[in-house]
Amino acid sequence: MVDLQNQYKSIKEQVDDEIQKVVDTSAFINGPIVKQFAGNLEKYLDVKKVIPCANGTDALQIAMMGLGFKTGDEVIVPTFTYVATVEVIALLGLKPVFVDVDGNTFNIDIAALPKVLNKNTVGIVPVHLYGQSPDMIELLEIASNEGVKVIEDTAQALGTQISTPQGEKMAGTLASVGTTSFFPSKNLGCFGDGGALMTNDEVLGQRLWQIANHGQERKYYHDSIGLNSRLDSIQAAVLDVKLKYLNRYIEARQKAAKIYDDGLNRIEQIQCPIRSRFSTHSFHQYTLKVLDQSRDKLRDFLAERGIPSMIYYPLPVHLQKAYRHYGYKRGDLPMAEKLSDQVISLPIHTEIEIKEQEYIIDQVHAFYRKSI
């Protein structure tokens, strides 16, 4: 699904040099490179404050702690997402309120928000799924009218640009807080775990930084309950190099997506990704909808021919065993449930070659010729 080895080889000398600098200085935790990377990411995103942390899940938890969410508060979240988005809500004793998603873009169904907003709602977490954004302007207006905070889950969409009346803005920078993950397969990935938060509120940014560092403003003086969530210096060194290439990486993914589109859009049994009109698409995943209930057979067919694929996600969070006690049942959020039976993601990454894509396209065509 990804080719991290060849991506590394293309920037090996730079990455190795930066890692060696960290080793030479032995500043492995909160070394100068962490601050340098945070500053460079601030410039890239045009945001006032970036707070590096240990992973994307921590970033979500730190955001909710920093915004002051309390036990029993309700947080609205799409059910068609990776579990981490919901996991932190449950861990903090908050109540996840699940909503459905748009069947074409896979993003949160904004029309569903007024139906679930109430006096207990404190937050909304839109997930920029697969690499594109919902209508953040409308969502933020709804949230503002209700006095509700918004946390952008940008783990799959760092580098995506969102259309606003003031021009293009980077995903993760419009809401109270944005969060992201630097898991190796992400658009900007390190060589282990890593994450960050983004905000234009400098006071909030300082609070988030404090929470991520044991709740301390200065060493051994703890002003709030916090976490031990730090980005290692070696990971920051890797990310600082790769950040220089992020736009190029996104362009490579977009080019690969266009090749898939051109090769697959004539197959009536599948639907190629539909682009949101509210943002660019950075194609963390290239996800098809299989319309004729042949998804699992297609996946097996491709696997037999050496082609990996993934299902993101086979079961919506509201139906997961760990979250059944919130009272949701099958049929409550029908679009997400339907998508879980339809979606399949094909390999897409910065190093994918046209000949590899042509082989994949040919095999998808072969499957549907065979199934007729």
Mean pLDDT: 97
What is the helix tally?
13
Query: How does the major sheet shape up?
Result: 7 strands, mixed
**Lateral strand order in the biggest sheet:** 1-9-8-5-4-2-3
Total strands: the figure is 14
Structural class: alpha/beta
Could you name the ranges where pLDDT drops below 50 across 5 or more consecutive residues? none
Amount of helix: 25-40%
Portion in strands: 15-25%
What gap, in angstroms, lies between the N and C termini?
Answer: 28 Å
Radius of gyration: 21 Å
What is this structure, in a nutshell?
The protein is an alpha/beta fold and 372 residues long. It has helices at 4-10, 12-25, 32-45, 56-66, 84-91, 113-116, 136-146, 202-212, 233-243, 246-264, 295-304, 334-342, 354-371, and strands spanning 49-53, 74-78, 95-99, 121-124, 149-153, 161-164, 167-170, 177-181, 195-199, 216-218, 221-222, 270-271, 286-290, 343-346.
Q: Can you describe what's shown?
A:
There is one protein chain. The protein is α/β, with parallel strands linked by helices. The protein has helices at 4-10, 12-25, 32-45, 56-66, 84-91, 113-116, 136-146, 202-212, 233-243, 246-264, 295-304, 334-342, 354-371; strands at residues 49-53, 74-78, 95-99, 121-124, 149-153, 161-164, 167-170, 177-181, 195-199, 216-218, 221-222, 270-271, 286-290, 343-346. The protein has a seven-stranded mixed β-sheet, with helices on both faces. Strands 12-13-14 form a three-stranded antiparallel β-sheet. α4 (56-66) packs across α8. The longest helix has 19 residues, at 246-264. The two termini are 28 Å apart. The model has no long low-confidence stretch (mean pLDDT 97).
